[in-house]
Design goal:
The chain has about 450 residues and is of the alpha+beta class. Helix content is about 55%, strand content about 15%. The chain has three domains: about 80 residues, Alpha-Beta Plaits, CATH 3.30.70; about 100 residues, Gyrase A, domain 2; about 170 residues, Multidrug efflux transporter AcrB transmembrane domain (Multidrug efflux transporter AcrB transmembrane fold), CATH 1.20.1640.10. About 35% of the residues are buried.
């Protein structure tokens, strides 16, 4: 690479580092802009301010416990129903922008932790308003009359008196419709549409393969009868089935406003709850402990970073100074990527980032050791530089590659905080390879042909 291209590349690296650094911490830049604007009467804009995304352990949030109602679920299907419930709620809180939520099961209870949500009502609304979709088939006239008679029989009586009546529980049932197997558990997607005659909004439903089969069987045995559609236990419509419906498609009509219908579609696509849930506990988690832990972690990280730079300068002298500059650029780039994605930072995630700094230094150590061997062998600085990088690359590639494989396994099978560790470590490792192999190499190429390259002691 020619000197001109090297200068251009380094200029690009420094500009990138400048923007990345100010993106990570724009306060000093913005204060400078304010001072400059006050002196010149100009109006230069501030640098873009975007906060880091912090996890529950660092910024606080909400801890919720829900009780699932499995009374209508077969014993053999309860485990699957709870797993489905967990998946739906996990998908829903992510849809609403909550990163790295903790959603876990404890028996028939669902525990949800949401970082950055300070208003309990907002969190409860986020989860609890997912609509419960259910189809019910019409009862026979005999069943309906029997239930209506029982309702009339217990009317006006106390609960203790009602319990003395034979089959008093019938009075608690819906006299017109009975629940079926078809619920929102089998919903594939929902779409907003408009009635071609009235122009009113409608909600179109598409069930998955299993749901389509159930829907077809349900309509086949109820031709000429009403099939009721309930949304959040409210009857929305009860159309008469004219014929067997295959393909698993249905429609919900009613007096929906457009915005209401849009919200319903969004909620249904987020995942209709497979079983009803009831909130039994809520707790706000304060960030005070998190702030202390964060400050301690940042202090430890800074001290470790300075110790690494000191080590590199002492043992590798000029090469160590250049590697330290590249390392500062690396830190700016990684933190900027964390903000842009954004990555939710937890204590575990910060640990992954700090570990990746060590990986970046490790790559530089391999390169510089190889360079020294080539210089001692009598080769020129430029030859030693190229050979050092070429011979160190397989070790760097293999070492970082295995780390990425482990990080992928942690992300695939770990819990929320472990996934955060895996994400920050993976991003850090990828950028550390870029820093060591690309940035440090360009800095070293500046000295090819200079007087300093002949002073082998400093390398």
């Amino acid at each position: 690479m020619s000197k001109k291209k090297t200068y251009i590349t380094i200029l690009f690296i420094l500009i990138l580092a400048f923007f990345a650094g100010n993106f990570c911490y724009p306060d000093y830049f913005n204060k400078g802009v304010d001072f400059f604007n006050s002196k010149t009467k100009l109006n230069f804009p501030h640098f873009w301010e975007k906060p880091f995304k912090l996890g529950l352990d660092l910024q606080g949030g909400i801890h919720l416990i829900y009780q699932a109602d499995l009374s209508n679920i077969n014993e053999s299907d309860k485990a699957n129903a709870m797993d489905s419930l967990k998946d739906v709620v996990d998908r829903r809180v992510n849809l609403f922008g909550v990163k790295e939520p903790i959603v876990q099961l404890q028996g028939e209870r669902l525990i949800v932790e949401l970082a950055g949500i300070s208003d309990p009502a907002e969190a409860i609304k986020m989860i609890g308003e997912t609509p419960y979709l259910e189809f019910k088939e019409e009862r026979s006239q005999e069943e309906t009359q029997k239930i209506l008679d029982k309702i009339k029989e217990v009317e006006g009586k106390t609960f203790e008196e009602a319990q003395q009546i034979t089959d008093w529980q019938l009075a608690l049932e819906d006299p017109y419709f009975v629940s079926t197997q078809l619920t929102g558990k089998y919903l594939k997607k929902a779409e907003l549409g408009f009635d071609s005659n009235t122009g009113k909004p409608i909600i179109s439903l598409q069930f998955n393969d299993e749901g389509a089969k159930i829907f077809e069987e349900l309509t086949a045995k109820n031709v000429g009868k009403r099939l009721a559609i309930y949304l959040d236990y409210q009857l929305t419509q009860a159309p008469v089935v004219q014929e067997t419906i295959s393909g698993g498609k249905a429609q919900i009509t009613g007096d929906f406003a457009v915005d209401e219908a849009k919200q319903r579609v969004k909620e249904l696509n987020a995942g209709a709850l497979p079983v009803p849930i009831t909130l039994i506990s809520q707790e706000s988690v304060g960030p005070t402990l998190g702030k202390v832990s964060l400050n301690q972690s940042l202090k430890a990280g800074l001290l470790g970073f300075l110790a690494v730079i000191l080590f590199m300068i002492i043992f590798y002298r000029a090469s160590g100074i250049l590697a330290s500059i590249a390392l500062v650029n690396y830190v700016f780039l990684v933190l900027a990527v964390f903000k842009l994605i954004p990555v939710t930072l937890t204590l575990a995630g910060i640990g992954g980032f700090i570990l990746s700094i060590g990986m970046a230094v490790d790559a530089n150590v391999l390169i510089f050791s190889r360079m020294r061997e080539e210089l001692k062998g009598g080769k020129s600085f430029s030859q030693s530089l190229e050979e050092g990088f070429n011979r160190a690359w397989p070790a760097i590639r293999d070492g970082n590659g295995t780390t990425l494989v482990v990080a992928a396994i942690l992300f695939g099978f770990g819990t929320s905080f472990i996934k955060g560790f895996a994400v920050t470590l993976s991003i850090g490792v990828l950028l550390s390879m870029f820093s060591a192999v690309f940035i440090t190499k360009r800095f070293l190429r500046l000295f090819i042909g200079s007087k300093l390259e002949k002073i082998k002691f400093i390398w």
